[in-house]
Design brief:
Elements (H helix, E strand, L loop, with lengths): L9 H12 L5 H14 L6 H26 L3
Helix pairs in contact: 1-2, 1-3, 2-3
């Protein structure tokens, strides 16, 4: 098994991920999550960051779906 590597942008990306963990599921935030998930997709390292991205993506997608459903239902 290859040794985990340290991504050169991991420190700054960690700050973004931490902000996204408490952010609302806006289009911008979902795009940021997708961008970072692509960046770390096959990277051999940054495992905790990747896990947090996956968790956040699931949470935001669920919240976004609920928000859309609630706002599109007839009153």
């Amino acid at each position: 098994m290859a040794q985990d590597q340290k991504h050169p942008k991991e420190k700054g990306d960690r700050l973004i991920v931490n902000e996204l963990l408490v952010a609302d599921p806006t289009d911008y935030n979902l795009a940021e999550l997708a961008r970072l998930r692509i960046r770390y997709g096959n990277f051999p390292g940054a495992r905790q960051l990747t896990q947090d991205l996956d968790f956040n993506f699931r949470t935001m997608a669920i919240n976004r779906s609920r928000i859309i459903r609630e706002n599109s239902s007839p009153s």
